[in-house]
Design goal:
- The chain is α/β, with parallel strands linked by helices.
- The chain folds into three domains: 26 residues, no CATH class; 161 residues, Bordetella uptake gene, domain 1 (D-Maltodextrin-Binding Protein, domain 2, 3-Layer(aba) Sandwich), CATH 3.40.190; 105 residues, 3-Layer(aba) Sandwich (D-Maltodextrin-Binding Protein, domain 2), CATH 3.40.190.10.
- The chain contains twelve helices and eleven strands.
- The strands form two sheets. The chain has a six-stranded mixed sheet, sandwiched between helices. The protein has a five-stranded mixed sheet with strand order 7-6-8-5-9, with helices on both faces.
- α3 links the parallel β1 and β2.
- α1 runs antiparallel to α2 and α7 runs parallel beside α12.
- The longest helix has 22 residues.
């Protein structure tokens, strides 16, 4: 701008100087019109690391997001599961990725709430190593299920049965998951003989339950709905503050007189810490737009969650509040883990 003022002040200057000033103005205006830092992003394929194994609910949801992002960006978006260790492997991969926005994490709250509370050592720092992008969805969390042939159909009947048959077993998809915490809270508060059996995946636990090798299990609401409609399991209770929309006939734990299970689960998207602000903003806007599509919204609802897609600051505030609530749950359930 100083060059422009000088050109106006030196009215007798050569015409070339005026042309140069005009060119500078045009160049500056054009540059200002471009979103700084996000030009051309993404210029190559983007990877999404989902929580859990291939074919799991979060993996399938990540693939729905990947397709929407591919259409919006015109670049391939690859879903690359790294299952195991309650999401630790997946989270660690993203935490150590370059801070350029080309690797994202779509995960449950386990990686950023449960694991830091339960593990004294993690290969990643949940607060320091990630850029929160959006809390994509909030839901009731896993529901308690039993085989269709089980002699109990609600929590009161289960508690009464457990008095006569101690040492009942329940399966989850890993130690430290919200299903494990809910199971231990149930053991601590109502059914002292419950024994936790961790599995690699939810489906393997359900197979053992159907075969009679396991008494109870936890399931995401979508799986529970499908399996109960097929006559393979029954749903005993739903955590959270209200009933799951896709299991509207099943009362909550609180409705059945079991307190402490009001926590809700969530699905969130993260990038490595330190990504350029313009890239962050583009990722957030793209994820929010994808969440508004019919395909993604349907998949979110189908697994028992409700779409949210909030801003990074809202996501951060919610996660901080959830950390305190989950810490209370861990303390109440008496869960301790050692690395």
């Amino acid at each position: 701008m100083s060059c422009i003022r000088l050109g106006w002040q030196a009215r007798a200057g050569v015409a070339a100087r005026g042309l140069a000033a005009a060119a500078l103005v045009l160049f500056s205006a054009a540059a200002h019109a471009q979103p700084s830092g996000a030009n051309g992003f993404p210029a190559r394929p983007v990877r999404i690391i989902p929580y859990g194994p291939g074919g799991s609910p979060i993996d399938l949801l990540a693939r729905a997001y990947a397709e929407q992002l591919r259409q919006a960006w015109g670049q391939p978006v690859v879903v690359d599961p790294k299952p195991g260790a309650s999401g630790i492997l997946a989270a660690d991969a993203v935490a150590k990725a370059p801070a350029d926005g080309y690797m994202l994490l779509i995960t449950l709250q386990t990686t950023h709430i449960n694991n830091p509370i339960l593990h004294d050592k993690l290969p990643y720092d949940a607060a320091r190593d990630f850029q929160p992008l959006s809390q994509l969805a909030i839901g009731s969390g896993p529901v308690l299920v039993a085989a269709a042939s089980a002699p109990y159909s609600n929590l009161a009947e289960l508690a009464d049965y457990a008095k006569r048959h101690p040492s009942l077993t329940y399966g989850t998809w890993g130690t430290g998951t919200i299903a494990h915490l809910f199971g231990e809270l149930l053991r601590h508060e109502a059914i002292p003989g419950l024994i936790h059996v961790p599995y690699k995946t939810e489906s393997i636990a359900h197979q053992d339950m159907e075969a009679g090798r396991l008494d109870l299990a936890w399931a995401n609401p979508g799986t529970a709905r499908n399996m109960s409609q097929a006559g393979k399991m029954k749903v005993l209770g739903v955590p959270g503050r209200q009933r799951a929309p896709i299991l509207a006939a099943v009362p909550t734990f609180l409705e059945q007189g079991f307190k402490g299970f009001e926590l809700e689960g969530w699905i969130g998207a993260y990038a490595p810490a330190g990504i350029p602000p313009a890239v962050r903003d583009k990722l957030v806007a793209s994820l929010q737009a994808a969440t508004r599509t019919d395909d993604v919204r349907t998949r979110i609802v189908d697994i028992g969650f409700q779409p949210v897609a909030n801003r990074p600051d809202e996501f951060t505030a919610n996660a901080r509040a959830d950390y305190a609530r989950f810490k209370q749950l861990v303390d109440a359930a008496g869960v301790t883990l050692k690395n």
